[in-house]
Amino acid sequence: MASDEAAGGANQALSEDANAGLATPIMDLVAAAIIAAISVWIAVESLRLPSPGGVFTAPGVLPFLTAASLLIMALILGYGAITRRRAMPRALDRFEVPADFARSMTLGAIVVVYVAAMQAIPIHFGFRIGSLHFVVGAFEAVSVVAITGLLKLYWRAALWACLAVAVVWIAFLSVVFRMIFITPLP
User: How distant is the alpha carbon of residue 81 from its chain centre?
Assistant: First the structure.
């Protein structure tokens, strides 16, 4: 790797994971386009927020600045990808799907379904154990299912073990937030 850098590492891009390999310019271009589109969307939405106290106290200032900085980074990534693409042989320019692509997309789908289910499922019931009153709501029900799925996806243990860990963890979080911090959960 050091010799590659010494030989003019302009044709290479490092991943966050040192063992992941090099990203191709096409992959960087796709990432830059997605990040730029999301940044523009967030910037537009932040400008649509009302600013009753003036520009500097508007609730959309921080999201706008964040989106603007992400847009600048996306443009830099895109420019670098175009520069590297021009300098490399066409045979090396390909869009390779990472080996764990399906698992990553499954993770994304679980997160999207989890957030939607938290809003859509109206579960709420309580029960008593001795003098303590426990509440089970959408957070507990949906989180147990989501955490079990995530554990099964990444841990690859038996389903009963994933379910047991999810139930214990979510019950612990629920008790801590509802009974100790007196904070309602979604």
Answer: 23
CA-based torsion, 78, 81, 87, 93: positive or negative: negative
Give tens-digit pLDDT for 118-139.
888 888 888 888 888 888 888 9
Give the span between the Cα atoms of 172 and 165, in whole angstroms.
11
Q: Single out the residue of 75, 69, 65 nearest to residue 34, CA to CA.
A: 75
Q: What is the mean pLDDT of the chain?
A: 82
Residue 139, SS3? helix
User: pTM surpassing 0.90?
Assistant: no
Six-digit token string for 132: 């303590």
Q: Are 36 and 78 in contact (CB under 8 A)?
A: yes
Let me know the angle formed at the C-alpha of 40 by 37 and 45, rounded to the nearest 5 degrees.
125
